[in-house]
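Go through this chain for my students:
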Amino acid sequence: MKSPVLIIDDDVELCVELAEALEANNMSADTAHTGTDGFNRCMSRKYDAVILDIKLPDMSGIEVFKKIRSSRKEQKIIIITASTVQIKLEGKESDLDLVRKQADAFLAKPFAIPALINLLIQ
């Protein structure tokens, strides 16, 4: 059996929707709703991929991304975000550029779930 996918997003409804879509495609999912919980889960077991939101309640997804990359350089990470404009307004454009270069994929919300599934299968 393949390792599960970790979904790190504070939107509980989206996490449920994504987990159901993954299960319908013979994948399993774990979820975390804070950056701290997501990072700790990622360090405690192997995941085929991490789906990571940029906006989290306790730390930015960019910070979580950097922490995961520093510990697990080969971890597949797909970034999802509601607004790249909002990130630029917060003065994090250079961090966003770093994430875009180093992430395995970058999807703007709303995104088509089949497109995300295809990224996970690749």
